[in-house]
Amino acid sequence: MLKLAVLVSGGGTNLQAIIDGIGSGTITNTQIEVVISNNRNAFALERAKKAGIKSLCVSPKDYENREAFHQGLLKALLDSKADLVVLAGYLVAIPPCVVEAFPNRIVNIHPSLIPSFCGVGYYGLKVHESALKRGVKVTGATVHFVDTGTDTGPIILQKAVEVHEGDTPEVLQRRVMEEAEWKILPRAIDLIANGKVTVEQGRAVVLEKER
Ligand code: GRF
Q1: DSSP per-residue string spanning 52-64
Q2: How far, in Å, from the CA of 87 to the mean position of ligand 1?
């Protein structure tokens, strides 16, 4: 059984997709041990409670400095005994001490086709604003392993989504979530839980892509 720690900051629709995937059996051999938010008011925490999942707030505001916060986050993750850390809309940069403790055992969902519209400063609506500004006709989402860079780790799954004439950032964000994020994040977790993802020479290899 793959044990997950899911890190969240906001609405938690990606968390909900994982909870629903486990419930419906599209994600197998997996259980969520803990949901951790940096933001006490994140609606994601309500979703965890409703699903009967342990939830915690580990906020930088409750620590003396950044280093103490990082150690607090690391401790919460180690205490959870999680095998895989899932960043599901987590808006805090993951510190090197956490990356080192979970090598190729942290996954992130990013709302573009990496390497487009990613890296420092590309989060939330900014990603979709930039895609619209550039006039791309196709965007999408990416699930990748997390390394010490920003959005630079091995890519596990990607899914393309069409951009429509007249899209606003909000409309495009919603379509990317519905058509890509809520599908490929649960799928990637199921693949990892069933031993279908390896990392070779810095690239993720998915052994069984289609279902
Ligand atoms: C998603 O677009 C995710 O890709 C991004 O932040 C958003 C989180 O949404 N990193 P939610 O909290 O899962 O609803």
Answers
A1: T--EEE--GGGSS
A2: 9
Number of neighbours of residue 76 by Cβ within 10 angstroms: 17
- What's the gap in Å between 144 CA and the centre of ligand 1? 14
For residues 78 and 4, give the distance between their C-alpha atoms in angstroms, rounded to a whole number: 11
Q: State the catalytic residue, choosing from 70, 110, 128, 144.
A: 110
Pairing of strands 55-57, 30-37: parallel
CA distances from 183 to 141, 152, 177 (A): 10, 21, 8
* Pairing between β-strand 2-8 and β-strand 84-87 as defined by DSSP bridges: parallel
Confidence of residue 210 (pLDDT cuts 50, 70, 90): low
Average pLDDT of the residues in 75-79: 98
Cβ < 6 A, ligand 1 pocket: 8, 10-14, 44, 88-89, 109-111, 124, 177, 181
pTM attached to this predicted model: 0.96
